[in-house]
Amino acid sequence: MGIPYYIVVEEQEYEKYSKVIKNGTVLILPQKYLDEYDTFWERAEDNKCGAGAARNFCWDHSIENGAEYHWVFDDNIEAIERFNNNMKVECKTPTPLYVCEEFVLRYENVVQAGMGYSIFCPAGDFRPPVRFNTRIYSNQLIKNDIPYRWRGRYNEDTDLSLRILKDGLCTVEFNAFLISKRGTQTMKGGNTDEFYSKEGTLNKSQMLVDMHPDVTKLVIRWNRDHHWVNYRPFRKNILKKKKGLTAKRGVDNFGMVLREREKDNANR
């Protein structure tokens, strides 16, 4: 999509990633972020802490570079799609990120946003273009000055969203743009190798219940242990428009155009 980016890896992975990363900058995760990470539960004998330590480094790296917000993406996302008129079309420019940013910047108290999952938005079903005050998974636009950091060995994304919402702030999930993402436990590496292939998903769900017992409970979904979260209490969190805001009325496609793929690329 032509977006400049950083990729964060642990030191032992640096050379392997550097051989294949051509359009990004590879950063090594400083050891202190692993050592100081709050896993919420006591660390297991393997001392592994999931993705949160790297995400905290991304956050601080963004601040050190003078940014007010940052995006952080999981590494198993295959595409960003435009969902409109019952079609999901792969995007080839950075415009979706710009549109999400422009929307978030209209409000004083939207501090986390992201795009929904393509798999949860069938082309034949209605979905609103945005959803408010829910969890943001796998791709997050985060306001840098909020007083939180990632924590937890598992489910750190749901935990961060819940702490934000419990403090009366707001989140936005976009359905106008979607991420095409490989399903949990279908891709090697990451949390699949670290946790789920060995211990299943009970621990990750139980941790979230222990973090937020007031709105979370254990359930069985997709033939595995899962968590269920009640987001209804956060409907009262109202978005606050910035003073002097002027937003263009009517449809604004931000310069996006629909083009048919070239024949030789049609099946890619």
Topology:
Blueprint: E1 5-9, H1 14-20, E2 24-28, H2 31-35, H3 52-64, E3 69-73, E4 77-84, E5 87-90, H4 95-104, E6 110-117, E7 130-132, E8 139-143, H5 156-166, E9 170-181, H6 190-199, H7 202-211, E10 216-221, E11 224-229
Parallel strand pairs: 1-2, 6-9
Antiparallel strand pairs: 3-8, 4-5, 4-9, 6-8, 7-9, 10-11
Strand proportion, as a percent range, falls in 25-35%
Number of helical stretches of at least 4 residues: 7
In CATH, the architecture is Alpha-Beta Complex
Structural class: alpha+beta
The CATH topology comes to Spore Coat Polysaccharide Biosynthesis Protein SpsA, Chain A
Which geometry do the CA atoms define?
Answer: globular
Largest sheet: number of strands, sense, barrel closure: 7 strands, mixed
Write a compact overview of the structure shown.
The chain has 268 residues and is of the alpha+beta class. The protein has helices at 14-20, 31-35, 52-64, 95-104, 156-166, 190-199, 202-211, and strands at residues 5-9, 24-28, 69-73, 77-84, 87-90, 110-117, 130-132, 139-143, 170-181, 216-221, 224-229.
